Batch of 3 targets.
Target 1
Amino acid sequence: MTDYDVVVVGLGPTGLTLANLLGRRGVRVLVLEREPEYYGLARAVYTDDEGMRVFQTAGAADELAANMNHDSTVQWVRRDGRPLAQFHQTARPLGWPVVNFLYQPYLETTLERALTRYPRVHVRRGREVVGFDQDETGVEIEHHACDGIGYGNRAPESAPGTVERVRAQFLIGCDGGRSVVRTRLGIPMSGTSYPERWLVVDLKARDGVDAFRHLPYFDFVCDPELPIVSCPQPGGHHRFEFMLREAQTKEEMEDPDTVHRHIARFVDPGEVEVLRKLVYTFNAVVADRWRVGRVLLAGDAAHMTPQFIGQGMNSGVRDADNLAWKLAAIIEHGAAHSILDSYETERRPHAQAMIDLSVLMKNFVSMRNPVAAKARDAAIVTALRVPGLGGWIKAAKMKPAPRFRRGAYLGLPRRGWGGVEGALAPQPQVRSYDGRHCRLDDVLGTGFAVLGAGVDPLTVLSADDQVALRALGTRFVTVYPHGGRPQGMPGDGRPVGTSDIEDHTGVLTRWLRRSGAGRGGIVLLRPDRYVFGVAAPGRSTDLVAEWRRQLALPAAAKLPEEVR
């Protein structure tokens, strides 16, 4: 017996996302956060289309999107503001803008408010985890009252006599770079801590003042004298980051006069309020292990990403998405604990690739040597003129793709270089039979999904396979090409036990064709919308058999009567 299914430690973006994803799936969750009050200041400033798709699964994306800056141009600029290169990413392959600048307090308060929808999710602030032990059936967690650490500004003080114990099936450490969970597991982090220091200044336009209209885009100011980041944010907010020289001290740079002098290059200091000024360094490190039995790490507790491509928070959001459905499959449906082995093998390579790209970007935009900086600028101008290469750069194709490493994921082996197995499926707008448009995932729900390429999936699946898939809440969806719906006599085309959609953009039809499903084949999508496998016509039994084997699901005879 356990008090909860999952205890989540930490109420930052990773913990909030995980708690929402688990809550939406009916899992009993306790979230423990040592800070008694919300921080209220920005740290992360950006999320991408992958992150927005996860928030969509969590049921919060539309509300979050209403408070974001979308589709901004990102650019490398010279000292005088002239662009060296511009990145335009306006396509929506995953159903959301690729570029979304945010104000983190808006994001976190929205996600925390969303948790109130789930009666099986409980949040307790001002509670610090002081120990835990695990056995074959669960984890015993000990926590006590805490006045917090001021988000790194002071040592915690605990209240004597407030110790409580709770038992859960799993413990997930989403408690940041100073993770108590990781520390108590004795897991070191490997990588590099960089000595370069940056001054971050968060600004807010004063009431009634349009202080930032002349700074509409995200700028990397590639000035060897003073590398700078200028970031637009919603709600009249803006962030600057200035790279320090070795001789400059933290006290000097955080002095109000110094801050005033630096921001005056870009804004009228009298039109803005300084919300935060802080000198920081950054780390590019990854925990040596992400799982010890029933205890797992996620977000900054597992990996820390330099800020230069805005992927630190997003890597944690991806962790939460990967973990949530696997935990739910184990807790709610009896899947084997071994599926958690794929968490690290799937997520570590992608998180490391994001770290490596962030370090590369840091080195690129913060060159101090004037000769090297001139050579960089000339190389950029030349590369942008090269056919193919210029388009590749402008579309930011250097960003790691959402595609698991071959042989390291839960799913069928990838077939050939262009195989879709282990890759994230697209999310186009689709059309219902009565002409309404919606995003694909809104049809698929939060569980597994079977897409039929012009065919009702239930007509190609055996009765036993249908039972096994239905037991995990799988949805079955027929995908018709534009203009390809059944026509004829009354009753023709009415789905029974399935949904049907029309691919009016052609995106999904082309992807299904490229996947190898062919007309009449099926594609099995995981709850995180990565492809588990593809079955051409007549091969669906093999696909479902491998799905059942990898998840080690109970036999049909053990399934609930209403499912059988």
Target 2
Amino acid sequence: MPVNPVPGSEKFSYRPRPAAEVRELATPHVRLHDVSADAVAALDPLTYEVVRHRLESITDEMGEAIVRMSGSIIVTDCNDFNFAILDEVGEEVQIGLYNTELAACSDMAVKWTLEHRAANPGIRPGDMFLCNDPWVGGGLHQNDVSLFAPIFVGDEIFAWTAAIAHQVDVGGVSPGSWSVNSQDVFWESLPTPPLKIVEEGRLRADLEDAWLRRCRIPALVALDLRAKIGANHMAQERITELVEKYGADTVKAVMRRMLDDAERRLRAKLAEIPDGEWSAVAYQDSARQGDDGLYTIRLALRKQGDRMTFDFAGTSPQADGLINCTFAGARGGIMPVLLTTLCGDLPWSPGGIYRCFEIVSEPGTVNDCTYPAGVSKGSVASAWATTNAVTECVSGMLDAHTDYTRDAMSVCVGSWDLALLAGLDQRGGPFVNLVGDPMAGGLGARPDADGVDTGGLAMIPMGRVPDVEMSEFSYPMLYLWRREEPDSGGPGRYRGGLGGSSAFMIHDSPAPAVAMVVSGGGKAMPQSSGLSGGYPANTQYDVAIRGSDIRALLERGEIVTDLEQVSGEREPMPPHLETFLGPDDVYFLAWQGGGGYGDPLHRDPAAVAADLVAGKITRVAAEDIYGVVVRAGTADPTATAERRRTLRLERAAEAEEATA
């Protein structure tokens, strides 16, 4: 398909240009600061380390700034945001430890702005650009809203800062902008290409009003906009102080070396790993409400020398639904895996890391869709599934090296279990709440250790699960429980981390019901794949108990700890549904754990017994999957050996039957 550079035109799909091309396109309209290669080479090690660590700390300060100013639980509790410091042409020099998916799009938005906004309306000191257009790169879906700003030294653009965060609602036909009936982007929130919303230091009231008009909770979105303005201001003040202390050329030389160091050190690692090809397929089991199609993302990772190629040939065409992601989402599926596995001991400078690999994808597919495909779920649908496939392949590659195998990890939390509530809160005001409980997902097992139970999301190192008390204070909810679920971690020689479950009801809302949007894959098949013979984690399971007796149970003082205690009509949730919760309904969601590593029949029987005693697995799993017979809290060696022998014989018989 053709790739058109004009947002909103048919089959538009933007590819970020190399730095030299961006510079050439922008320089007729703006002056860009630069330093020579000699200045980079002359940089002394002590100055380099001091300035590099100061730039890193600035991103941490940006995180503190937005958390202190935001009023959204998604930001303040879940940490679903991130920041970037970029050089004058949009190469990412440093990002934060928050949602690393979002780091894959900031450079795209800045480069596009330099190419298409430098002439008209121009880029000047004090300007800030707002963007939530996934095709341009302002986010992975419309709820990811970025605000980025140039830093000038004299009359030259010296660098950029960018703040990006998930907004709970930015319009569209469904609450929370999660349009489960979407067939294209016109069902969803309006994507906004880079818009100069702050001009020469002044927030433009006309553009802010136009931006907030789409939102169901404009006051909260306006507060988050100001939080991002404040975070950018803080970062720019700190960078300006650095420039005043060390000089613009020195600070820029540090930025250049950070990019070069990230590239050099990653290439050195890759050169040590045996060349090869690894493949994986990630699945999604619905594209919209009422759809039961199966959509695949196919990946072949080829490593040759010191370079990688991520080839997505054979991926499904873009769907008539909300699950597609743009090219920014494909990049967002790759970068978090590289940062957290290969680059844990490297500078987190994506601009240098991008030099080490190539992406081969076809515009018009589910993880490289063209306008006007539906993308409102893109960040946790096709971008997330891309992360799953990349995790399998990169971990397989690391498993081929005796030292780097320790950094391999099975897939973590194979899909996001979305429950979104909207209506009137206990104070009578409007609310929208994206339930953040699946932030406590299970991490994948490693070649030498179990995955961390409810350890979070690997792509958001600083992610957190929101406090139950804060959720109940902010929204008309009453939790019955939130806990880890047995058997949710993928079995293996090393077990995947457990996922969890929540059960809650609507409480103290003046409305007769609350709107709810359900959106989650991994119900038809598990998506947290295992490695090296490890089994996948659990499938997602959500159910509403309609017209229950929960209020009568609570009035009698009963503590409800199991769905079997609750009477009512059980309605299992499909992958996508727009529905409601009434005052007597109970909602249960169980999200996925992490995949296992290695054959579960090779797991230490003592570890299986300990898991059973701790409630991490059930007796059925211990005996039928791990082949361990536990008596009085300890593994019976004789019975275990016999049980495992029986299971191996059953496997052999099944394999023989399958090939007959």
Target 3
Amino acid sequence: MSLTWPHGPVAVLGAGPVGQTTALLLARWGVPTVVLDQRPARDPIGSKAICQQRDVLDIWDAVGAGRRIADEGVTWTTARTFHRDHELFAIEFAEAGRSAFPPFVNISQTRTEQILDEHIAAEPLIDVRWGHKVVHVVQDDEQVVLRCDSGNGSVEVRAPYLVACGGARSDELRSLLGVGFHGRTFDDRFLICDIRADLPGWATERRFYFDPEWNPGRQVLIHPCPDSTFRIDWQVPAGYDLDAEVISGDLDARIRAIIGERDYEIVWKSVYRFHSRVVDRMRCDRILIAGDAAHLVSPFGARGLNSGVGDAENAAWKIAYVGHGWAPADLLESYHTERHAAAVENIAVTTATMDFLVPQDEQQARHRAEVLAAAGTDPDARARVDSGRLAEPFWYVDSELTTPAAERPFAGRPPRGQVPSAGPGVLLPDAPITTPGSGVGRIRGLARDGFMLLTTDGADLDTARTAASALPGPVRVLGLAELDPDGTLTGALDARAREVWLVRPDAHVAAVLTEPTIDEITTALHRATARTTTPHGIREENHDGALHAGG
């Protein structure tokens, strides 16, 4: 889309995947960015975050990178869980509609960053500045001012907004902003080894072992990666000494207990402990905090990077809409309410997992032992085994931007491996579509170009078009029957006659309205862009970009 941005470049702090994604998504909206990173250059070391979820690949596809990341990664569709040497269950992942991507792809964070860097290099709206350490931040009603140590003296950067995604070690920034970072740190460590080896039959599945004989009393997680590489995570006790284990030969014995006498090569190894923390504010006036700078979770469930990319998309479209004058500045407050709720959900899910993996008291330890002992034969016990609920898009059902529908209530967190039914607040199912003059495409590709109104049989297209015409910014009005001749999307939505579906620029459903009037559609549109509306759809709004007290 061709757009003229009326401000200076938005500042993005941190050139990791969340910062890269933020800059690329803002560029789609015609928004220039300056990306600041204190490192002298990219440091391509280790696999780090390896597990990329289907809907994150879909976000990267919007900036041209998703298909390449998916094609280079290892596709897996099954998660197997074992107790000692007995398989307890296997989960295969469901989808609504027909996605362009598999449920999960494993590829090193290093390689993902390299691919995103190539897209950034081809984007003239993005200016990446390595070796810029931000040492001070202030803001007023018009801008954010950052003072950086560039190695060649102090540099000042002025920006209308700042997206702060500098990673877990953002203590100074959080302190400058006055935000808390509450939670807990777990005592047990985890040893990571990326090994290259030939392991037939292991290349398409994730394996989780409780209490295997080769790591008694603790856990092991094995993930396939490209180039015959496998990521192995062992839970190890506090005080574990990796260097001593290398010298003694015990690390070799640890690896061979899993792979046998096959040849192998250690590509990378590290020891980490993990945290469960979230900031109390993800929006501080003109500054939005994202990724690990805002929330830290245990790695079981792959909810770190995947959630950070969700932050990036949420921040990007809202900054674009406010800055272009299409929405009032209050829209930015919904970034905090939506993404903080997502972070709290991730904390709840991963904390429950950690309490099962590393019991915190005798009662939790007894519960775990009883569940694992029974799970071999009892299906109900198997359902209580928690080896990590894998990443999924958050549902904005309680957001102030979402119009609820009594006939489509949210049923709550779905079972593992399932997705919630389509409805207000839920990510739109993806499916192939046919568009006049453009041929075959995908519904989420259309959705991410702005707001979209989808009408079902019997709904009045003219009513939807009249309502849409009053909304600043890009809005599409499309008939579902023409887009979806084979009924795949219709079935995934469980679409009913005389409905109008309102979809946001991040492809989440904002409203499902039945036989709506112009006023009802207008009210839902205004709600989805944080406007104050009267019953007749007359709006009171502020497009000057000023941030209000309490933000």
